[in-house]
Specification:
The protein is mainly alpha-helical. It has a single domain (3-70), classed as Winged helix-like DNA-binding domain superfamily/Winged helix DNA-binding domain (Arc Repressor Mutant, subunit A, Orthogonal Bundle), CATH 1.10.10.10. Helix content is 46%, strand content 5%. It has four helices and two strands; from the N terminus they run H-E-E-H-H-H. Strands 1-2 form a two-stranded antiparallel ribbon. Helix 2 crosses helix 4 (55-70). It is globular.
């Protein structure tokens, strides 16, 4: 699956989860997946807990998050 196909799994609908980034229109947000993984959870457990998820959905969330921070600019202020 290419990057564009992965990103198409991330959907936005104001009627679902208040328009947050969700996976394929389901009521599972990208944020939920990221928080689970950041807390030390493993993809296998996530897939077991949410059988409607696929490994490609987790990959899509990670790609989506990486794209969000890709253009991040960091500015350092010189101390006075």
């Amino acid at each position: 699956m290419n990057k564009q196909e992965l990103l198409e799994r991330i959907t936005f609908d104001p009627r679902v989860m208040c328009g947050k980034a969700t996976i394929r229109g389901m009521r599972i947000t990208a944020e939920q997946v990221l928080k689970f993984l950041a807390a030390g959870g493993v993809a296998e457990d996530l897939l077991k807990d949410y059988p409607e998820l696929e490994q490609a959905d987790i990959n899509a969330v990670l790609l989506y998050a990486s794209r969000l921070i890709a253009d991040e600019h960091v500015y350092f202020l010189k101390a006075a």
